[in-house]
């Protein structure tokens, strides 16, 4: 087996031991979630749980199981002050916050509409720091993230981290349970001819997104002068992993159906971590009008318009908004 282990990579990078412990807890939680996802049909964990989360979305049994695994595993960390989970309405304070303590934001199981069809799902997470003793602010801009990451439960389970050293991908070895470095430097090609959007919402989009879609679907006869390809898995982690591996742009814009909620995807534990990863890999991340990492959230479960991926394409979409 080749490739250094997760701990070795984090230690060699000089990460503080408290952060390494927390990241190892997160890796353990992801390993446990991967196991539950793989055994879902055998344990009767598909279908609906019969409950709704804070956002009014139907919960799946595995959403709840994955959330419980994260809470049980990550609360071991002595420097973790608070948790913000997609599945929990309130911020969970674990201790009196001290300067330098960590805040963990996570979507325990993203793309869970794919569970019943045995397609890829993932976990997204982000770590920030408490600014000073007693500070209970969790509404911080994404540029303050210390680490952003995701786990992809695909044919292989992967952990992808942006922790100040570019973007690194680790693969879970089935059997030993060890995450080993397999993608030392993930970068997003600047140019792309591939986009991802839920095109069934076309009639609800605003003019700049309609114009972008018209341009790329016009192909070589249109203003872009080349053919584009489209992909839509309906699982953000799977979509972003593809974009990190071969380029592309992912859009979940504001539209007439989601405008009153502010968009579709959640800022603190979905979009901001992905934006940090994408920027660290050389890509771009915007709402269309603002850089995502500069947004100061107004509430923990805030939603936001999202455009992420290859830099020149993201810049082009931002220009269409101007
Ligand atoms: O968390 C939301 C999510 O499941 C994302 O993973 C995915 O990109 C999106 O929703 C899919 O949206 P839609 O249901 O419109 O295809």
TrEMBL record:
Classification via InterPro entries: FBPase_C_dom (IPR044015), FBPase_class-1 (IPR000146), FBPase_N (IPR033391), FBPtase (IPR028343), Fructose_bisphosphatase_AS (IPR020548)
Residues reported in the UniProt entry to bind substrate: 110-113, 198
Residues binding Mg(2+) 1: 86, 107, 109
A UniProt-annotated Pfam family: FBPase
Residues spanning the signal sequence: none
Cofactor note: Binds 2 magnesium ions per subunit.
Listed cofactors: Mg(2+)
EC numbers on record: 3.1.3.11
Annotated Fructose-1-6-bisphosphatase class I N-terminal domain residues: 17-183
Name of the protein described by the UniProt record: Fructose-1,6-bisphosphatase class 1
Organism domain of life: Bacteria
Reactions that this protein is recorded to catalyse: beta-D-fructose 1,6-bisphosphate + H2O = beta-D-fructose 6-phosphate + phosphate
Record note on quaternary structure: Homotetramer.
Species lineage: Bacteria, Pseudomonadati, Pseudomonadota, Alphaproteobacteria, Rhodobacterales
Sequence similarity: Belongs to the FBPase class 1 family.
Entry's Gene Ontology molecular function annotations: fructose 1,6-bisphosphate 1-phosphatase activity
Domain Fructose-1-6-bisphosphatase class 1 C-terminal: 188-321
CDD domains in the record: FBPase
Keywords: Carbohydrate metabolism, Cytoplasm, Hydrolase, Magnesium, Metal-binding
